[in-house]
Amino acid sequence: GSWMTALSAQATDMSGWLLMGLPGLAYASGFDSVWLLLGLAVGTWLNWRWVAAPLREATERLGDALTLPDYFERRFEDGSRLLRVLAATFILVFFVFYTSSGFVAAGRLFEALFGLPYVEAMLWGTAAMLAYTFLGGFLAVSWSDVLQGSLMFVALVMVAALGLALVGGPGETVARLQALDASLLDPFAADGGQTLGAVGILSLVAWGLGYAGQPHILARFMAADSVKSIPSARRIGMIWMVLCLLGAMAVGFFGIAYFQQHPNQATPVTANSERVFIVLSGLLFNPWIAGVLLSAILAAIMSTLSCQLLVCSSALTEDFYKGMMRPQAGQQELVWVGRIAVLLVALAAIALARNPESRVLGLVSYAWAGFGAAFGPVVLFSLGWKKMTRAGALAGMVTGAVTVVVWKQFAWFGLYEIIPGFILASAAIVLASRIGAPASG
Predict the structure, then answer these.
(1) What gap in Å lies between CA 40 and CA 55, rounded to an integer?
(2) What tens digit of pLDDT does each residue of 49-65 get?
(3) For a Cys staple, 212 with which of 267, 282, 339, 376, CB 3.0–4.6 Å?
């Protein structure tokens, strides 16, 4: 239904970076983080408006496709199964980075709460995540997402509201930021007062391009009980999204004002700005309330991570194992193959997350760009352009993924890799589809 679809999609979207990465960005760089919020809000609305209902209709029309690779194969009548295998491969590759960001966030949380060394804290957090994912399937995860999304919303609003009230309100917070460093209130100023520039602004806003290609979010659209649920879900989801984004940004701003007034308490945040929500929750609230608020971080991580691991599991079981190796495999066999798949993906993600210098937002941005460029244009064109061909889908998928990987290595012009990846993938889809189309088309 509408509520479950909306909150499950948004909670799955907003992982630990909503309570750690985004407040940390606002704390470190100030008001220029508003460009990221703008891109995310607009991208979310466009995804709900132009992708959710058409994708739900298309997957039902194509025999209730269960996964994104399954949808691509049926949409383009790909008897070779190359589209399915390629899509499943990209899902596994980029979700390793995305999943590792969740393990990093869990490690930071357990490190701060229990005083454990980072790697040990990360491993304990990972164990909790895996146990949780092993116990439930897609429907169970979707139901728990509703509760977790509600907890995330309450936690952000409470910390932001109380924090701003303690400082003296939004006006006093702005005054303190102005006195500390006027560039913190300048949306065109980056870290250290440097000019953000058109490339910097474009790179932040471009996060919105990624939504149409995120398998874990699209899976929620595909699972809606009917197309009629989508408009109400869109309104619910957008209200939740906007208020959470504003709350996360307010936590970062309040953190600047608070720690300027209490510099002796700022050491953990100075070392890593992504700890600002954790530290403020512990300082401002009674331990019982702080414990509930901090569990919102765990809720955010678990809601996204469990869905990501399940999407990886379905890619390996449905698209590789059953689709290519054992079509006759029974349900119980697939369940155990899926659990082994979850374990394998988790081990690869742990290897990435072991680095104590890892940053949640950095890992998310790479995976987000990979999915956005590899799948976003393919999904959009497949829903809106009837003349798109299998060759176009293959060309777009490969071009988008390769561009992101290469661009990330060289960081040309300081431009976020999703932009060239999305543009070149779209061009490849059009060119390949037209070249392979019949002369009369």
Answers:
(1) 20
(2) 999 999 999 988 888 88
(3) 376
> Which is higher by pLDDT, 103 or 359?
103
Q: How far apart are CA 209 and CA 428, in angstroms?
A: 17
What CA–CA distance (Å, rounded) separates 143 from 5?
Answer: 9
SS (H, E, C) the chain: CHHHHHHHHHHHHCCCHHHHHHHHHHHHHHHHHHHHHHHHHHHHHHHHHHHHHHHHHHHHHCCCCCCHHHHHHHHCCCCCCHHHHHHHHHHHHHHHHHHHHHHHHHHHHHHHHHCCCHHHHHHHHHHHHHHHHHHCCHHHHHHHHHHHHHHHHHHHHHHHHHHHHHHCCHHHHHHHHHHHCHHHHCCCECHHHCECHHHHHHHHHHHHHHHHHCHHHHHHHHCCCCHHHHHHHHHHHHHHHHHHHHHHHHHHHHHHHHHHHCHHHCHHHHHCHHHHHHHHHHHHCCHHHHHHHHHHHHHHHHHHHHHHHHHHHHHHHHHHHHHHHCCCCCHHHHHHHHHHHHHHHHHHHHHHHCCCCCCHHHHHHHHHHHHHHHHHHHHHHHHHCCCCCHHHHHHHHHHHHHHHHHHHHHCHHHCCCHHHHHHHHHHHHHHHHHHCCCCCC
The answer for 371, left when phi > 0, alpha when psi is -120 to 50, beta otherwise, is alpha
**Helical segments of 30-81, H only:** 34-47, 53-61, 68-75
Mean pLDDT confidence for 142-149: 74
* Token output for 196: 């953000």
Higher pLDDT, 357 or 161: 161
* Average pLDDT of span 424-432: 96
Cβ atoms 86, 319 nearer than 8 A: no
Structure-block tokens of residue 245: 């984004």
Q: Dump pLDDT digits (tens) for 341-397.
A: 888 888 888 988 888 777 776 888 899 999 999 999 999 999 999 999 999 999 999
Check whether 441 has a pLDDT greater than 50. Answer: no
CA 216 – CA 229 distance, rounded (Å): 19
Please give the pLDDT value at position 439: 45
Instruction: Give CA–CA dist 35/196, Å, rounded.
Output: 11
State the pLDDT confidence band at 153, using cuts at 50, 70 and 90: confident
Closest CA relative to residue 303, chosen from 419, 150, 90: 150
170-199 average pLDDT score: 81
